[in-house]
Design brief:
Blueprint: E1 5-7, E2 19-22, H1 28-33, E3 37-41, H2 46-50, H3 52-58, E4 66-72, H4 88-105, E5 110-116, H5 129-142, E6 146-150, H6 157-173, E7 179-183, E8 197-201, H7 206-214, H8 217-220, H9 226-240, E9 252-257, H10 260-263, H11 269-289
Parallel strand pairs: 3-4, 3-6, 4-5, 6-7
Antiparallel strand pairs: 1-2, 2-5, 7-9, 8-9
Length: 294
């Protein structure tokens, strides 16, 4: 089968509820092989909120193609308005459709929804082995040049489960892409020292990025204005990135470089995150003791 359908049997998911979705007429295996950018998020909508840069890098591009991986089924999202009486199972289906709609609008190569229950052992951090196995198989089949996921200092527990699983999967495979980074979601990265973080200009096509976020009506109408908050954060990043120069962009995306964790397999994620925090602490202390100049 091909086209805008979910392919449940064309990928060896650890979870039988997992599904592969191809937005165009490509065969599933071909869709995965054309992948150059792999986005891995915990929930439906994470990729569209934290990953404007990779989405835009692949937009209408002959060589770049984005495949998205969504690990959870999204059943725990808050709900109000028309979604107030939706059961968890109904929300799962709504959010799956929204993610697939985003894949069509964003011209993704494919999406793989792993559908692990948010209240289950995998997303709860008690047993990440099935998730790691899925991610290893996905990386084997896609061989991406760029991988983006959540950052190590995120506040959401599901996001931490995912980034740790991604790091472990890549280490087991000994796979090192050209770029590997974690985006902003449930904690901004403006606290990081400029030299420690990655900066991406995402000023272009804000009509598209707004449309991709707007797909998630169940979240926005359901009680969380993620669209406004996300756009506001990126616009704030652009304005507050440099106190001495005019704005070079109207939207700036920050990310944490995760490559050091692959270049040094012995480096613990908690130690790397702590190092970044300590760099920030040193900068604060230096400014305070030197009269404001770092």
């Amino acid at each position: 089968t091909s086209g805008r359908e979910a392919h449940a049997m064309s990928f060896p998911f650890q979870n039988p509820k997992g599904c592969l979705f191809v937005p165009d007429s490509a065969e599933p295996e071909a869709a995965l092989k054309r992948t150059t950018h792999l986005g891995i998020g915990a929930h439906p909508d994470d990729l569209e909120f934290m990953g404007w840069h990779p989405i835009l890098e692949c937009l209408d591009h002959e060589e770049n193609h984005l495949t998205g991986v969504i690990t959870s089924d999204g059943r725990s999202s808050p709900r109000s308005g028309m979604y107030a009486r939706h059961t968890d199972e109904q929300m799962v289906q709504v959010r799956l459709r929204e993610q697939q709609h985003a894949a069509v609008s964003g011209d993704y190569a494919a999406t793989l929804s792993l559908m692990y229950e948010e209240t289950g052992p995998v997303m709860g951090g008690k047993d990440s082995q099935p998730l790691i196995a899925d991610l290893m198989e996905i990386v084997r089949r896609t061989q991406p040049r760029v991988i983006f996921t959540h950052n190590l200092c995120d506040r959401h527990p599901h996001h931490i489960v995912v980034v740790l699983a991604v790091v472990e999967a890549l280490r087991r495979l000994k796979y090192v892409p050209e770029q590997f980074y974690g985006g902003e979601a449930w904690r901004s990265l403006d606290w990081m020292n400029p030299g420690d973080r990655l900066h991406f200009d995402v000023s272009e096509h804000q009509n598209l990025t707004a449309a991709l976020m707007g797909v998630y009506d169940s979240q926005i109408t359901g009680g969380k204005r993620y669209d406004q908050a996300t756009a506001g954060r990126k616009r704030a990043n652009a304005t507050y990135s440099d106190p001495f120069h005019s704005d070079d962009s109207s939207a700036l995306e920050y990310a944490m470089d995760l490559m050091p964790l692959l270049k040094d397999p012995e480096l613990k994620p908690e130690d790397y995150a702590t190092r970044l925090v300590e760099n920030f602490l040193t900068d604060v202390k230096t400014r305070l003791t030197s009269g404001g100049h770092a």
